[in-house]
Amino acid sequence: MDRYQTQFARLAAKQEGAFVPFVTIGDPNPEQSLNIIETLIAAGADALELGIPFSDPLADGPTIQGSTIRALESGTTPTVCFELLKTIRERHPDIPVGLLMYANLVFANGIEHFYQRCADAGVDSVLVADVPVKESAEFRAAAEKYGIHPIFIAPPNANEDTLKTVAEYGGGYTYLLSRAGVTGAETKAGMPIDNLLASLKAHDAPPALLGFGISEPAQVKDAIQAGAAGAISGSAVVKIIERNLADNDAMLSELHRFVSDMKAATRV
């Protein structure tokens, strides 16, 4: 079993869902970014979803765009990101680590080269936000070659055909969008997702994690009760970083508190 399967099985045995925080690697700077990621894990994160900063993040709202700018301005290059990923993997051999990024970054030095670097750094999955599942063949081929799960998004307005394709081509987990649009904690995640989840399960899709607009423990609980395997929270986590840029220790303690509370909500 790979890291995702092992983690989902371990959680199911304890009747828990997964809580997965997202942060941009290098925000606010590479050194503090490593402290942040260590804090997320210590507070109970079941997996990590990490962004490689890119100058034009299309699917992201202002909060994540801000984190990207801070990371880029502090000198966070893809090479810095991969070094940091290697460190995380050495310290935490079992936690699933996913990357969320954009196609331009994958193309920069060649698709194969990118996935090889992911494999070398111990990355488990890659979600390329601006590549629809039906245009993903060359990304999937490279991912498969290097043992990386390709993650696909199941949007709230997806038809049966799209859900079937997402189920067939995806690995690791399925990123279930709670609503269409850009990311952000301001817009509350909207249910009902029951129909989407039922359809994904019928097509034997990888476990679904609900993302976009997840900022409160009650939403995590709702997602799991609706049948999702867990929830991903990005903007709400990044906002904590943004609020505490002048005080690293306060930042880490608020992050610890937030992740602990969100994780507690997975024990339904």
TrEMBL record:
Protein's pathway: Amino-acid biosynthesis; L-tryptophan biosynthesis; L-tryptophan from chorismate: step 5/5
Family matches, as Gene3D superfamilies: Aldolase class I
EC number: 4.2.1.20
Active site: 49, 60
Catalytic reaction equation(s): (1S,2R)-1-C-(indol-3-yl)glycerol 3-phosphate + L-serine = D-glyceraldehyde 3-phosphate + L-tryptophan + H2O
Family matches, as InterPro entries: Aldolase_TIM (IPR013785), RibuloseP-bd_barrel (IPR011060), Trp_synthase_alpha_AS (IPR018204), Trp_synthase_suA (IPR002028)
PROSITE patterns from the UniProt entry: TRP_SYNTHASE_ALPHA
Keywords, ordered alphabetically: Amino-acid biosynthesis, Aromatic amino acid biosynthesis, Lyase, Tryptophan biosynthesis
CC terms in the record's Gene Ontology section: cytosol
A Pfam family: Trp_syntA
Ranges in a coiled coil: none
GO molecular function: tryptophan synthase activity
Record function comment: The alpha subunit is responsible for the aldol cleavage of indoleglycerol phosphate to indole and glyceraldehyde 3-phosphate.
Assembly information from the UniProt record: Tetramer of two alpha and two beta chains.
Similarity remark: Belongs to the TrpA family.
UniProt-recorded name of the protein: Tryptophan synthase alpha chain
Gene that this sequence comes from: trpA
